[in-house]
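User: For my dataset I need records formatted as: sequence, then structure tokens, nothing else. Please produce one.
Assistant:
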Amino acid sequence: MGVTISKTSELSPISFVSTLFGFIGFALTIATFLRVTWENIQTFLGASTQISDLLGNLKQGLYEERAHLRKVRRWQRRRGSFQGSPRGGPDEKNRRRSEHWYGDGHSYHGYYPDMKDLHDDDQSTRVMREAVRNMIRDFRALEQPFLRDDVESRFRDPHVRNGEGYAPSDDEEYYKTEYRTTGYRERWLWLNRKGAVVDMMSQLSRLETRRIAKEVGEACLIVRGMERDFQVMDDRIWNLEQRMSRVVGLRRVEPPIQ
């Protein structure tokens, strides 16, 4: 009993679609593999310039952001000492002084931040400073393998409390970091750590955007408060002129003393 093989059999539509999707998925996988391989080759070959450029820019951004947040913190302390401690509740002394200056029954119409606003600003700045401090600590760990031996030993201090033995200063010499000559070891390390450096740069960019948005919002509130202050001042000057004109007018119509 023989077996008959049909030479005119065709694939079912489901089998054809499944085969087509299989080829498409395989092609996408090959394309992704080639793209990742090409990017890794470019990173490996261009490590000599990418190390100094990316690490240098990231370091400069981190330390400039830390310096700016320190200035903001000092300004907040001076403002808190002038208007009262953010943790001490409402400042009744300044409030009574404002009421005495602007008169009873008249509230201050300008931008006069209360203690809750000062406390929120203090907490927001503290959170950003903590984030920058943690990013700097992580950056030192990423940068360490690429530093020259003399530069690494220059900024190493075994008595630093952070446990990593680094005590970078804020001098200009620290920003002029000299990296090692790029060899195969440094290229391979950079291939594994470039992603972390790029992610840290994006985190720093988001933090800077948040800080700038906060400062711009505060500046807008201050400008609007100044506009209201000028309006109130103009109204008070107009009222004073009206009173003075009435007083002067009464004096003019008084009969002369005989």
